[in-house]
Design brief:
By secondary structure, this protein is an alpha/beta fold. The protein has helices at about 1-20, 25-30, 35-50, 55-65, 190-210, 225-230, and strands at about 70, 75, 80-85, 90, 95, 100-105, 110, 120-125, 130, 135, 140, 145, 150-155, 160-165, 170-175, 175. It folds into 2 domains: about 1-175, UDP N-Acetylglucosamine Acyltransferase, domain 1 (3 Solenoid), CATH 2.160.10.10; about 190-230, no CATH class. The chain contains 6 helices and 16 strands. The structure holds coenzyme A (COA).
Amino acid sequence: MPRIAGLIREDVSTVLERDPAAKSRLEVFLCYSGLHAVWFYRINHWLWDRGFLLLARWLSQVARFLTGIEIHPGATIGRRLFIDHGLGVVIGETAIVGDDVTLYQGVTLGGTGKEHGKRHPTIEDNVVIGGGAKVLGNITVGRNSRIGAGSVVLRNVPEHSTVVGVPGHIIFRNGERVVITDPKQINDPLSEALAAVATEVSRLRERVQRLEGSEAAAEPLSASLQRIMEDIDYQI
Ligand SMILES: CC(C)(COP(=O)(O)OP(=O)(O)OC[C@H]1O[C@@H](n2cnc3c(N)ncnc32)[C@H](O)[C@@H]1OP(=O)(O)O)[C@@H](O)C(=O)NCCC(=O)NCCS
């Protein structure tokens, strides 16, 4: 019992730390449906682990009715999960969520519909997933990464990365801007096209300089092209 009270206190403190809108412990305790959903989940997971599968599933549907958040009791969830606003959040049966994760409303940690067994994502510690983002399949989002609102993520995300878009692609890694990333890790035809154009521009500039003689000063690149050329050299 003291342990449960301790966990509840910890969850309430987490919300006060992460949500500037939270004003008091009592408000957080009473008004944050994301917390209520997590507390329901803790009970349901306990039942699930002890073989009360139907009861656990039924209670998870009661929790969904009350909070608008559906967490499968078979999911594995770490400490201090904060689901902000919460409505429409879905966490699938084989999802694994680490410690200190934040999910906004409408986030799905779901399957692609094509896999069996472990078919939901693994979200490592300290990840933030923006509103409406869909993270699908047995993939891993590395710790300290951020997924932008509205993204659809279908591939592994390395640690310390920011991913946006549909399909999700990396825009920051380890604090550095990334336009062109390893094509094996993202599926972004626009990035591939930009890489090909920038490589060609670079080759042509060298050729023109050779033909004009090394004393001829090269025209400066436009700022946007300069940025792309620099990003090409940044390999993840
Ligand atoms: C992804 C996110 C974390 C990036 O934040 P950031 O590091 O401050 O990055 P910036 O705002 O500087 O944006 C960097 C680039 O990504 C783009 N971008 C940011 N968020 C995006 C998103 N969700 N989808 C698509 N592109 C996005 C920006 O337009 C910008 O592009 P540009 O450099 O070509 O102009 C943030 O934008 C986000 O989506 N947070 C989720 C917040 C949320 O869901 N809140 C719900 C509260 S209820």
